[in-house]
Amino acid sequence: MKNIDSYTHVRGESVYLDDIPLVNGTLFASVFDSPVAHGKIISLNTDEAMSMPGVVRIFTATDIPGENQIGGIIPDEELLAGTHVHFCGMPIALVVATSDKEAKAAVKKIKAVIEPLPIITDPREAKEKGELIIPPRTFQLGDTTTAWNQCKHIFEGSTETNGQEHLYIETQGAYALPQENGAIRIYSSTQGPTAVQRTAARVLSLSMNQIEVDTTRLGGGFGGKEDQATTWGLMCALATYHLKKPVKYALHRIEDMRMTGKRHPYSSDFKIGLDTDYKIIAYEATFYQNAGAAADLSPAVMERTLFHCTNSYFIPNVKATAYSCRTHLPPNTAFRGFGGPQGMFVIEAAIAKAAEQLQIYPLVIQQKNLLKTGDVFPYGQIAQSEANECWDKAIKLYDVKKLQQEVADFNSANKLYKRGIALMPICFGISFTKTMMNQARSLVHVYTDGSVGISTGAVEMGQGVNTKILQVAAKIFSISPDKIKINSTNTWRIANTSPTAASAAADLNGKATEIACLKILERLKSVAAEECILSADIGKTEIPPFELKEEWVYINGEKTDWNWNKLVMAAYIKRISLSELAHYTPPGIHYDANKEKGHPFAYHVYGTAITSVTIDCLRGIYEVDAVKVVHDFGSSMNTMIDIGQCEGGIVQGIGWMTMEEIVYDKEGKLRSNALSTYKVPDIYSVPKEITINSLETEKDNLAIFRSKAVGEPPLMYGIGAYFALRNAVKAFNPAAVIPYDAPMTPEKVLMSLYQTPNP
Ligand code: MTE
Ligand code: LUZ
Ligand code: MOS
Fold first, then answer.
1. Which of 194, 225, 230, 304, when mutated, tests ligand 2's pocket best, judged by the most ligand atoms within 8 Å of its CB?
2. Phi-psi region of 89 (alpha: psi -120 to 50; beta: other; left: phi over 0)
3. Is the Cβ atom of 432 under 6 angstroms away from ligand 3?
4. Which atom of ligand 3 approaches the CA of 337 most closely?
5. Domain termination site, one of 557, 584, 611
6. What's the gap in Å between 711 CA and the centre of ligand 1?
7. What is residue 595's DSSP assignment?
8. Domain membership flag for residue 129
9. Closest atom of ligand 3 to CA, residue 226
10. pTM here?
11. Of 333, 428, 433, 508, which is best to mutate to test ligand 2, by the most ligand atoms within 8 angstroms of its C-beta?
12. Ligand 3: which atom is nearest the Cα of residue 336?
């Protein structure tokens, strides 16, 4: 089945925020944001801006009727700066004008005098100064202190991973409209409509039932709109609240890049110990997360780093500590993988370092230590592992021995081009790590003409969740997909939603939809039983075996003259409800943050990727030749969508690991603030080949129709590209000492190629 949005996407008819027709009298907003990273606001002069053409009003923190507070996990973030600014790009004032152009022109005329205060951009420095968002957390298994004695080989090192700009095609934005009795409707490009609603209520001192948030779809979110779409919804709502006028704000790309947070950069230390046959006996890691100036989702991201710090390996003695460090950068936020990739990079670096020193292929260590079913994760959950199955299938299917030989042959035959290859196994836990968030609701209406309308808490952002939800209903009802419509995500129809995140939207909302459809189906079946029994004139006591198949009722395997539409109408005439609101929460998940033990994930997703690259040893530039994957889809519901998610995730992961380089200067100013200075993968830099094969497993899991979640895990295959590049550089310059510092940009490749050992 095709993605249900493909038709309107191709025709340019799909509705995004900017496609919503504007109501007469709509005003436009634009934010004046802090030009410095840390300081005390001495004065703010808006006089000249106010006198600019078209300007209606300028709002500051004092205009906020409720709490000036948008922090989701910790209340530590103002909507508009009150007395101090904490990052370059922090909103200070909101200009509202009759056009977007006029609003932006007026912003330029605002003058702020800000007394500078010391700026921290480095997470380790923040930690030294005690600037932590939350107290540190430690995950522990076994006892590393005694385990080091059993290790034959011990290696230590440090790593750096940089941030990543989300670069959703549709920038952040919202459109707020006044409703009767002071209510406000907000169209928001958000992954979390309820977060926008809840925070708007807090900031405007309204109750949640007065705020309606509606989202048709996003032009991408990738985590960047899980929490940080809220700000822009609130800016519009604040202006609408005061002016009683519709207000729209869709950010310019440069505003978006400057003012919003990104993937968290991490600086980390590792220590790894192996025995003589390369079993990893002990592993210690310390993570310094660059949280930025406010908590945002950082505590949860930090937690997932700890959950994934051993990737898909079983290690009997583990100690991992993470610090969430407050710096003067825009608050960093969710980004596909949510801290998991940052944790996994460190263990892969530790393994690569061990392999380098021991002069063996890293895959020897990787393979030896893969998780088996029954192994325990450092956080106490027992693995139901597919790691070995994926790995073994990849090794066989793609003939890794031959691939290695080809690389070796190429490298001995070529002086100025070198190839590298690396394997990357992944393991990703599916569920929000905050157990409470794992709940969803679905509202299903069957109309008297047989058509079906569905609303859930899931937000469509290109990942195909609406198609999957539609498939669930089509399968349960056994009706044609074109009888079903998925409606916009709306807080008045579905309340208290979790954001569409953690790759769990199809599972949670799909399951709720399944439950709702089954309940309606049950009622329809009893109508069918009664009606068919009557018409077939069978004794009323026994109900013959019957089923609904492709819109027709079958009795004893024989087609009747009752179809779906007739059945629906009969139910309606009998005054039987054709609507259902169902609730789903996955069973069996729990977590005790005091002990740092529990069963936080409904299940894990596994896979293995083989990445090969070629570098140009004169220029330092490179190409990714191939990424060959065996991925654990469970029993895929939609192969096209799932492969699309893999391809997109892989390219995004490779971008993070190789070319996307966020640069903040010492003053906390974003230097890579446009697409001319921040390079993302384009069509020329995507791998020349991406092959995805599936490990189709029918094993029991808690996924919808056993199709495992697919949204985030493939991103982590991209880590393989970093290590493949290192291996290629080593083939040219075996003496190079290359720091584990991602991204591996062409510049860094070039420097390492011609690096000479210190005299
Ligand atoms: N795919 C597209 N096309 N656009 C997106 O914004 N976001 C990713 C992933 N795939 C994203 C995407 C992220 S970060 C998540 S958490 C999941 O989709 C969310 O959707 P799901 O729960 O339905 O998988
Ligand atoms: N968001 C969240 C997430 O709030 N909790 C999570 O565990 C999570 N995991 C992945 C992506 N987003
Ligand atoms: Mo995805 S980072 O969970 O939005």
1. 304
2. left
3. no
4. 2
5. 584
6. 5
7. T
8. no
9. 4
10. 0.97
11. 433
12. 2
Do 106 and 224 lie in one domain? The reply is yes
Q: How far apart are CA 124 and CA 158, in angstroms?
A: 12
Q: Looking at residue 542, what is its pLDDT? A: 63
Considering only CA atoms, give the Rg of the chain.
Answer: 28
Pick left, alpha or beta for residue 359 (phi over 0 → left; psi -120 to 50 → alpha; otherwise beta).
Answer: left
The residue range of the domain holding 467 is 439-584
pLDDT at 419: 98
Q: In terms of domains, do 427 and 359 share one?
A: yes
Same domain, 458 and 487: yes
Residues 313 and 425: their CA atoms lie apart, in Å, by 9
Q: Which atom of ligand 1 is nearest to the CA of 506?
A: 23
Which residues does the chain have with pLDDT short of 50? none
335 lines ligand 3 (CB under 6 A): yes
**How far is the first Cα of the chain from the last one, in angstroms, to the nearest whole number?**
63
Pair (463, 527) in one structural domain: yes
Same domain, 375 and 508: no
CA-based nearest residue to 432, from 73, 113, 37: 73
Q: Measure 167 CA to ligand 3 centroid, in angstroms.
A: 14
Q: Whose CA is nearest to atom 6 of ligand 2?
A: 432
**Residues taking part in catalysis:** 712
User: If you measure from the C-alpha of residue 439 to the centroid of ligand 1, how many angstroms do you get, rounded to a whole number?
Assistant: 18
Encoding tokens for residue 369? 């230590």
Residue 384 CA to ligand 1 centre (angstroms): 24
Our mutation pick for probing the ligand 1 site, out of 463, 471, 715, counting the most ligand atoms within 8 A of Cβ, is 463
432 in contact with ligand 2, CB cutoff 6 A: yes
| Structural domain count, the chain | 3
pLDDT for residue 757: 73
Q: Whose CA is nearest to atom 4 of ligand 3?
A: 223
Evaluate whether residue 154 is within a structural domain: no
- CATH code, domain carrying 542: 3.30.365.10
Tell whether 682 and 744 lie within a shared domain. Answer: yes
**Residue 651 CB less than 6 A away from ligand 1:** no
Q: Are 236 and 29 in contact (CB under 8 A)?
A: yes
Helix axes 719-732, 746-753, angle to 10 degrees: 30
CB of 190 sitting under 6 A from ligand 1: no
CATH code of the domain covering residue 70:
3.90.1170.50
In the listed set 259, 275, 303, which residue is the last one of a domain according to the structure? 259
Q: 503 CB under 6 A from ligand 1?
A: yes
Say if residues 333 and 192 touch (Cβ distance below 8 Å): no
d(CA 543, CA 539) in angstroms, rounded, equals 8
Q: Which residues contact 373 (CB under 8 A, 6 or more apart)?
A: 383, 384, 385
Residue 431 beta carbon below 6 angstroms from any ligand 1 atom: no
| Residue among 226, 301, 303 to mutate when testing ligand 3 (max atoms within 8 A of CB) | 226
Our answer on whether the CB atom of 191 is closer than 6 Å to any ligand 3 atom is yes
pLDDT tens digits along 144-197 = 999 999 999 999 999 999 999 999 999 999 999 999 999 999 999 999 999 999
Cβ atoms < 10 Å from Cβ of 716: 32
Instruction: Confirm whether 487 is domain-assigned.
Output: yes
The pLDDT of residue 534:
64
Give the DSSP H/E element, type plus range, for residue 282.
strand 280-292
347 in any annotated domain = yes
Are 274 and 249 in the same domain?
no
Residue type, 164: Q
Looking at the fold, whether 13 and 57 belong to one and the same domain comes out as yes
Whole-angstrom Cα distance, residue 216 to residue 16?
Answer: 7
Ligand 2 pocket residue status of 304, Cβ below 6 Å:
yes
Is the CA virtual torsion 56, 57, 58, 64 positive or negative? Answer: negative
